Amino acid sequence: MKLRLMPVLLTALLSAALLFGGWFLYRQFVVQEPLEKIISSYKGVNTSHISINRNAVTLKLDLQPGTKLRELVQYINTEGKSAIGGRTVNLDVEQHSNQNLDEYWEKAMFSVAEAMESRKYTLIPETLKELSTQYTNVTATTEIDDKNVYVSLTDGKESKFIILPREPETMGVWNNA
Length: 177
Fold this sequence. Notes:
It contains five helices and six strands, in the order αββααβααβββ.
């Protein structure tokens, strides 16, 4: 029995194209597209970019000032549960900050870090409220869930969103502050 090289190569190429094409189409139309529709339908989301790999879903979001970040995370986790599966969700929120919001956060950061380290989360809103006397046009909101503490600073036009994990890493800094 003599195998001809050209039909074997064509069959292997066609099989590989069919396999990887099917995997791409599944990932695009069954996983990513429904998740994009869920995220873009939420009030306060300007744009979103989704990156999906085996263990994690990374969402790069551009949010309007005043968007409730905890509610958005909860909405994504409940509505997108079938698309997310067992993957972890990582948020990367695009910052539209200004100097005033950055100064506000710099003054609050030490007290917030101390409250996070000692797990006294009720001190965070108190700290931000004390600073609001110096920055009258800045509105600070804090929310908490079982994984993160969410701090939102806004002055009406610009916003700064900070996500603080409740389980601290052993060494490092907050990469999204």
